[in-house]
């Protein structure tokens, strides 16, 4: 690396004027990556400070390029007590990357991957483990000396260690909570700094593919001596009504200097409309004397008249700015902004009441991965996943099984969705306690966060004396930081009495799969004085476009039963939650299970496992399956038949009817096909080529099925739904011919020029008449011309496939795939072209503009357009043409 290259690596965040009290800048650019095979590991234990060696400081060539001086230890040589060794540039190969980054998803899974003997390789979907290094060189300006500088890593996979300029500065033993490090005194001002991160994914916290590397954002922050501490603003609301609300603001303020400081604290609140809330009068509480090297707590109470309330589906947010000013000489010492919502939540045994409006909890569980990105999701993709769940009718998401990303919670705040974060490790070790504290402090002011979950399926501890003691400590820690929210856990509730008092400590008892196991009422009788929630229910595995269990290719189908997948496994221990499986103990019918879960008068609601497919914990638990296929959507975000069952439950006011399978079965003319309908109508009728197949079928538990099936004839099948005797919805599917042309259906036609906006473009193939071809597997090549690029592709296949790499081509899976298109930083038209051998090419134009700074909302019409997996879908209450 040349001196010029090093000197160009300036950090705008550290070049602010001294009058700027606080800056926070994204630190995702300019990193280098090495998978670890040729990197000499730096040391954590050293004889002399700054001699961690390895790549934790400048290499020989980098030092010479800068003309920097060697340290005294280097000058004195190995005769001294310690040696500072510098690598050479050719000692290791480094690749330029941009964060977030998941190196594991870039590898190919294989059944030959080796794991620890007590860790079945199936759990992480056969993806390899390993150690990765991330390195960044940056400079700081000399005039910033004296400011406090912090690095925050939102998430590093596995066990992580961090070095700066030859100093080992910290580590973390979880992938899921932020790590903030004070690096003030170890920074070099005016000369290059070296930041090195070691991410070790050799071990795992979860039984799913967790990703590898620095897979969330990194930030660098600068503050003064007097500062609001990390996550040191806590906002709560009480006495909430549409006429008035009382807002309590609690501040934690540190003075890191030796001298006392006389200061004032003032608040500015801005209404969601942009208008300032009437000024808050200064009082004695606004003035404080901050003693040196101490932390003070300041509490303020504000009354807001006629507040705009935060509610489900409408995330009305107020903006709060906190100012800390020095009295003499007058100077702004710190300024922090935060958004909050005003809402009141009351719990009843059959739901929650938010600002007087009652609702069941219609929830889904989500893992954090998606598409070709693995776990390293851009902000826009995080938002798109949440919007997909909301589009289906979900009003709540449980984060399985860890703390969420800040971007996910902020989006839920904006859109009005409830979030249930979860503690990853159930332990009272100092590390686990700190992880819990970090999670609660981080999200306790977010209106979307409505409850805390303190563990998931800790079977060896649930109901035991030791488990009860650990849980009591975690509850105490949680309540000390946030006494306003109820506490639950992910419980596989024992049918024995709770003699150890484990569940009695909870505000809301979390239950898993009580409908699946058929003992919900029995479980309820054990907790007669407790609120109850099914925080995992459903567990139905299916594959988009597959209908019956396919053992050869490891596909579950829309007509499959869950025990087919759970029993089809190579290793007895391959399913972490179920253990020994007796199919006679299961209620294998998903429709009645979910109907009960969301209608039982003694249950507040449920979270379906899961909203979207995820990598690892595959169903079935054997190669070539690499995906947990329990989602209503696949990993490309494309809906399955199962999606329509859940949507019909979540959206009772929207008449829905969906028949399956598709109606293109060459060679099966005259044969009887299994045929079922998901609907929230009263009854349905089925026509084949205009002829009724029989009398109307009643909808029971959101499903109807022809007992003898339907004789297949090429043409079309129409399912029509009736409410109170009136036809209200229908679903028509037509027989398709040979693939003729590709179609591109973007979820948005306009992108902003931030360089971070992404369009999800659905690719499908139709015949000469425009009918969707549901069996197409053509290899599709995609290109972009203009201000943007093709980021990658995914087709939703749940078995092993090379479709994740390369990034610009993939085979269609059962007729469809998705290409992810990233807008650039310049304005203009971005042309996307998709081509396949023997099929007409498709193009679409996306407009990239700086004026388009809209929020990231997934348009809801794609799943109901004429050309999609559903053929023609007409609903009198929703005009597709108007929405399109």
UniProtKB/TrEMBL annotation:
Keywords (A to Z) from UniProt: Glycosidase, Hydrolase
Gene Ontology BP, a term: carbohydrate metabolic process
Every Glycoside hydrolase family 2 catalytic domain range: 425-493
One Pfam short name: Glyco_hydro_2_C
Domain annotation Beta-mannosidase-like galactose-binding: ranges: 133-205
Domain DUF4982 positions: 670-729
An annotated Gene Ontology molecular function: hydrolase activity, hydrolyzing O-glycosyl compounds
Origin: domain of life: Eukaryota
Family: Belongs to the glycosyl hydrolase 2 family.
Protein name: Beta-galactosidase
